[in-house]
Amino acid sequence: MSMEHKERRTWCEEISRINRNLNDDGKKQPDNPFDVFGKR
């Protein structure tokens, strides 16, 4: 990806949010080891 780090991070966070919403079935999700800032 030819994006700046901040832009790439924002893009990844948005995609992750969309995926979480699509996969949400009301059950507690396992902890994300890549979520080092607790933005879940």
TrEMBL record:
Region described as Disordered: spans on this chain: 21-40
InterPro entries according to UniProt: DUF6760
Record-linked Pfam families: DUF6760
Chain intervals with Basic and acidic residues compositional bias: 21-30
Residue span, DUF6760 domain: 2-30
Protein name in the entry: DUF6760 domain-containing protein
Lineage of origin: Bacteria, Bacillati, Bacillota, Bacilli, Bacillales
